[in-house]
Write a structure and sequence with these properties.
heterodimer, A: about 110 residues, mainly beta, 4-stranded antiparallel sheet, 12 strands, B: about 110 residues, 6-stranded mixed sheet
Chain lengths: ~110, ~110
């Protein structure tokens, strides 16, 4: 069965600092990997996805993530955080065939200090 | 708009009442998902519809929960005899196969 672990429940950074949110997954084959962001009172918005190819993927809002098969990780990064990045971030792993139901991590809450 | 639409955005009801939550997916999306998100928690999968296949109901927490999808489009999640532990945000998402999901803004359900 597939699973996702986001080890950090909360992350606090200062505005302008760099950010890395961790995500580890368990999946039997090459996974489809996603990062979503959720602002208060809203649904989830896709930041970026990895299906195949280049292991460094670029997303919206200046985010990027790197797929590392050897570490079963898909960490999200941003070089300089803005106050508007404060939100809940979810990593998800999905399947390329059969049932497409992705599995979500429990989320990491990002707090940005001015 | 072109996104996933959920209604109502907020619902307050008394314990024991039935509620219906509606989801309008993106036109042409074959897959539709319902999730439950409790305060401070991640997403709990409830049910998945894919085309004309039988839905995957493996996430429904009890037989008080049911969902249908009519004409391969609009979906309704029904909770019968609501309990206080049903209070949560119910999120709907749609997708085209294995492509990324598009989420609605959710229905915030409060059981008094």
């Amino acid at each position: 069965a597939q699973s996702v672990t986001q080890p950090d429940i909360h992350i606090t950074v200062s505005e302008g600092a760099s950010l890395e949110l961790r995500c580890n997954y368990s999946y039997g084959a090459t996974p489809y990997l996603f990062w979503y962001v959720q602002s208060p009172g809203q649904g989830l918005q896709l930041l970026l996805k990895y299906f195949s190819g280049d292991t460094l993927v670029q997303g919206i809002k200046g985010f990027e993530a790197e797929f590392k098969r050897s570490q079963s990780s898909f960490n999200l990064r941003k070089p300089s955080v803005h106050w508007s990045d404060a939100a809940e971030y979810f990593c998800a792993v999905g399947s390329s065939g059969g049932s497409y139901i992705p599995t979500f991590g429990r989320g990491t809450s990002l707090i940005v200090h001015p | 708009g072109a996104g996933v639409s959920q209604s109502p955005s907020n619902k307050v009801t008394e314990k024991g009442k039935d509620v219906e939550l509606r989801c309008d997916p993106i036109s042409g999306h074959t897959a539709l998902y319902w999730y439950r998100q409790s305060l401070g928690q991640g997403l709990e999968f409830l049910i998945y519809f894919q085309g004309n296949s039988a839905p995957d109901k493996s996430g429904l927490p009890s037989d008080r929960f049911s969902a249908e999808r009519t004409g391969g489009s609009v979906s309704t999640l029904t909770i019968q005899r609501t309990q206080q532990e049903d209070s949560a945000v119910y999120l709907c998402a749609s997708s085209l196969g294995a492509q990324p999901q598009h989420f609605g803004d959710g229905t915030r359900l409060s059981i008094l």
